[in-house]
Specification:
By secondary structure, this protein is of the alpha+beta class. It has 14 helices and 13 strands. The protein folds into two domains: 278 residues, Orthogonal Bundle (P1 Nuclease); 144 residues, Jelly Rolls, CATH 2.60.120.
Length: 471
């Protein structure tokens, strides 16, 4: 399939762009960059940390390395309740809907905090909370590696890295944090650094990591303090003022002056802090691998077993959606389409085949609307295996096209092929759609896609099956 296939794993550049536009608007009068301590630095620092690993560890993380640097390290900045909602994250009726990135990647699960349900523990991106968050996610990384769950481990690594990285970008002094950027990202490198093992047990390594992140915060302060003092505002004074006010005018003026009068020195400080951070990230990931030396190989899926999670949509995520499923808003500007976790009522007409729930799509736009499995619940597959999939559908007043598909993806979460059933264009009572496909040579993941497009009516889906056949 072409790389721009509409079922490709969503890359969150559009929502981040909106957020950064909004942040820029809010801070334009300051003459500062948007309110992100590290922007592209998150991605480059992560890549540099992976590059520093010993060859065997680089090979182990390789299937997830690209997306770790591209996406996972941004998870804490993407854990917003506005994803999947209207208004570009700012409830602006002129802006389109956010794709449902938070649900599609189960970001709240990996961050340990659900901002909609207010469940879990929320970690601010500054010390001391960011220091604690790094250690917590280090432990989760080791646990996932020992269980052979590489994808989960890489996602926990991304969260851990993010908190380490934010700790080194002055989040406790917002006027600095919002302007502390290295413009030459390619210069962020570990320079032949050999990662150190932080401890001989997960608890010992987590404790050392905690101490190291605290030292990193102190190191970055010492690196910038002399430059800031030349503006007439000491680092201690900047911290004192910022503890009372988010953006104190005196500190803002000092940062603007420093950037204007000594741009090269300021850039060098940001680059040094980024490189120091990359070395610590490399130590953390190296240590996690060292504490899980026998990364278990993934076992093939069992045959003749339904591998679809929450296949009848009976369990929910607590926020109006079936657990393990998310909505694919293929036209962010559409204002009519609806995707609902449908509940059987008390009347004689109940569009639910089994149990009490089904997944409904209503009034889908020309570009389509769909339910899809979240990546955490995607099915890992191996080349040459054969899978049979099925779903039951019920339609009413439909137009356009409705279909069911098995979408295969490579290790970069890009689509490689799409096996779908015959298109349904007429009304029907509960009807089973089935298909079978062999896993392509470069495929690693499989997701079920429940799709309808240009449809002025309604479609209900129930009882999904994904079965690896014996042959």
């Amino acid at each position: 399939m072409p790389k721009n296939n509409r079922h490709t794993a969503y890359r969150p550049r559009l929502p981040l762009l909106f957020l950064r536009i909004l942040a820029t608007t809010a801070t334009a009068w300051l003459g500062l960059a948007p309110a992100f301590g590290w922007g592209g630095e998150h991605n480059r620092i992560t890549a540099a940390a992976v590059e520093a690993l010993p060859a065997g560890q680089r090979a182990a993380i390789a299937p997830e390395a690209a997306i770790l640097a591209r996406l996972y390290c941004e998870f804490p900045d993407l854990n917003w309740p506005c994803y999947g909602e209207w208004g570009g994250g700012n409830a602006d009726p002129r802006l389109p809907r956010f794709p449902d990135t938070r649900r599609e990647w189960d970001i709240s699960f990996y961050c340990g905090w659900d901002p909609v349900l207010q469940k879990g523990k929320s970690y601010p991106h500054r010390a001391p909370e960011s220091v604690e968050a790094a250690a917590v996610h280090f432990g989760k990384t080791v646990e996932a590696l020992r269980a052979g769950r590489l994808a989960d481990a890489a996602r926990f690594v991304g969260v851990m890295f993010h908190y380490i990285q934010d700790s080194s970008s002055f989040p406790h002094i917002q006027p600095i944090h919002r302007a502390f950027h290295a413009t030459k990202l390619d210069a962020i490198r570990t320079g032949g650094y050999e990662p150190q093992q932080l401890g001989n047990t997960p608890a010992e390594a987590a404790a050392v990591l905690t101490a190291r992140v605290r030292k990193l915060v102190d190191w970055t302060e010492q690196r910038l303090a002399p430059l800031l003092a030349e503006t007439g505002v000491s680092l201690d004074e900047a911290k004192r003022l910022t503890s009372k006010e988010l953006l104190p005018a005196a500190v803002t003026r000092a940062v603007v002056k420093l950037r204007a009068e000594k741009p090269a020195d300021y850039e060098a400080a940001a680059l040094d802090c980024a490189n120091e951070c990359a070395r610590l990230c490399a130590d953390a990931l190296h240590s996690a691998f060292a504490l899980a030396p026998s990364l278990a190989a993934a076992k093939p899926n069992p045959t003749n077993t339904n591998l679809a999670f929450n296949s009848s949509f009976e369990s929910g995520d607590g926020d109006r959606a079936p657990e393990g499923w998310c909505v694919g808003w293929l036209d962010p500007n559409d204002r009519a389409g609806r995707a609902e976790w449908y509940r059987a009522g008390t009347h004689w007409d109940k569009p639910v085949r089994t149990g009490k729930r089904s997944a409904m799509l209503l009034w889908s736009p020309q570009k389509g609307l769909e339910w899809r499995q979240t990546w955490r619940r995607a099915v890992p597959v191996n080349a040459g295996e054969t899978y049979r999939a099925a779903v039951w559908i019920k339609t009413r007043a439909i137009t356009g096209s409705t279909w069911f598909a098995m979408q295969f993806y490579d290790t970069a979460y890009e689509p490689v092929s799409n096996a779908k059933n015959e298109v349904v264009k007429t009304d029907c009572d509960w009807k089973k759609l089935s298909l079978e496909a062999t896993v392509p040579s470069n495929a690693h993941w499989l997701r079920a896609i429940l799709h309808t497009e240009a449809n002025s009516g309604a479609v209900w889906f129930d009882d999904v099956e994904i079965i690896r056949t014996a042959r």
